[in-house]
Design brief:
By secondary structure, this protein is α/β, with parallel strands linked by helices. The chain is built from 11 helices and 15 strands.
Amino acid sequence: MGKLVIVGTVAFDEIETPFGKTDKILGGAATFIGLAASQFKVDAAIVSIVGDDMPKKYLDLLSDRNIDLTGLEIVKGGKTFYWKGKYHNDLNSRDTLVTELNTLADFNPVVPTGYTDADVVMLGNLHPGVQLSVINQMEKRPKLIILDTMNFWMDNALPELLETIKYIDVLTINDEEARQLTGEYSLVKAAHKIYGMGPRYVVIKKGEHGALLFHQDQVFFAPALPLEEVFDPTGAGDTFAGGFAGYLAATDDTSFENLKKAVIHGSNLASFSVERFGTERMIDLDKQEVNKRLHQFKALTQFEIELQ
């Protein structure tokens, strides 16, 4: 069983989409990553920070899925990171209405002693300086360091982001962010520029249009499964990352061929995440459903053709 360190937010989200709205519910990058990774036989630990306003039932929900929480700092009298957003009708764009950093503003991550030798490190979307501090705490080079980031850090912490990217193996970003980071419209050219920054692999997420995996001159495309209902895309990218990292930690294989399988597993789990608000769907997801949908993914792209 491989060890996986997950760094990111455990948070409160308040979400409004064309299909309804929620009060404060459990969210955060590390939460979605952890729930997705728990679908695999992996020894996972979350490194994050919350206030003592985080209900015990939410923490129990994570620990009940064998996610180690010794690296989750609970600040007495502190308030947990809170985000409120409203999605437009196409669900591809959204407005951030409220962001309260609260305890996250002073977050200094500490990797638990039992996980400083982890096989895979999944650095969820946070300040790149925080991400680098986690890399520096590992007692040996992990087999794979995966980093997720966004355009906010490109706008506000680009030098720190470029420094952190030097030390990672896989960068996961969306197509818009890949173009911003590299100044290249072609995603193939963008991936080649990113190789020059440090990573060996680049995953470019295209939302409802799937995901691309790049390695040297090799490219793999995983489609997004057409769904009857999409309620809330919040956390879909983090769920993808959790499935991707969880599968790789469980299989102990960092070859391009296995990363292709990891992309499919990530896409598969993300397709469940969007079916309800927040983490609701991931909480009650069972292995039989996951496997059934994996077969749908296979059928979606498998064909035989006779070449003339």
